[in-house]
Amino acid sequence: MASWRHYGRSLRSFWSTSLAAELEYPLNAVIELVSVFGNLAGSLFVLQLLFAGGSSLGGWSWDGALVVLGLYTLLDGITTCLLQPNLSRIVNHVQTGTLDYVLLKPIDSQFWLSTRTVSPWGLPAIGAALALIAWASSRAGLPSPALLLLALALLLASLVILYSLWFVLAALSIWFVKVWNATEVLRQTLVAGRYPVSAYPPALRLVFTLVLPVAFLTTVPAEALLGRGSLAWAGGSLLAAILCFGGSRLLWLHAQRFYTSASS
């Protein structure tokens, strides 16, 4: 219990200092708002084009597809708030040798590297995403409390999967200096999660399920929220989250054995 309180106090200290620094530039909020609504407008335009040929997209209605788009926007906002500001710095820590100081701190290094800072500029995307999900899911039929809880659990699983993918790529900088290009490729690939995975050709569905778990990020939580999910997909999503997080933890512990200190 004392350990949890220690981590809670550390997190509060991390985020209060980083928010104070970020809020010195309030115009960033305007830029982010324009960016969010521009991206949403572009995604809605493409979605409308995809629906031009019929009333469904891969078996999904317009409202169902909007829920998927809302979940993607929500994950993108959380990435802007937490994942990108923290995990993009791991490469710099390795290149400049400041990872030495991180490893010497009396706190878990993965926790420190993953939570040291927070950016408020993803909040407009999170707000817009929640509004879109609530509006679209209410039009499709309000979910029961049980379905809502299941959808929240699967959304948490998707966050764990997304975090693990980012952290694994960032941790590879211990061996490969220019790995940050791969994280940009990952972010662009995950854009496929804006639309239901069943809208893609069969070969891509396999890739987005077994290789890059895009299907578990947005489609599976959306199916649960709309009451069309299955126990197999829900179980697969939770299992994927456990395996991804366990893999990222093991990789980080293994990577530290190969890290060469800048002072050595």
Explain the overall architecture.
- With 264 residues, this protein is an all-alpha fold.
- The protein is built from 11 helices and no strands.
- Helix 2 crosses helix 3 (62-96), helix 3 runs parallel beside helix 7 and helix 7 runs parallel beside helix 11 (231-256).
- The radius of gyration is 20 Å and the shape is globular.
- The model has no long low-confidence stretch (mean pLDDT 86).
What is shown here, in short?
The chain has 264 residues and is mainly alpha-helical. It is 74% helix and 0% strand.
Which spans have pLDDT < 50 for at least 5 consecutive residues? none
Helical residue percent? over 70%
Q: What would you call the quaternary organization?
A: single chain
How many extended strands? 0
- Helices and strands: which structural class? mainly alpha
Order of helices and strands: HHHHHHHHHHH
Q: What's the mean pLDDT score?
A: 86
What fraction strand?
Answer: under 5%
Largest sheet: none
Instruction: Tell me the Rg in angstroms.
Output: 20 Å
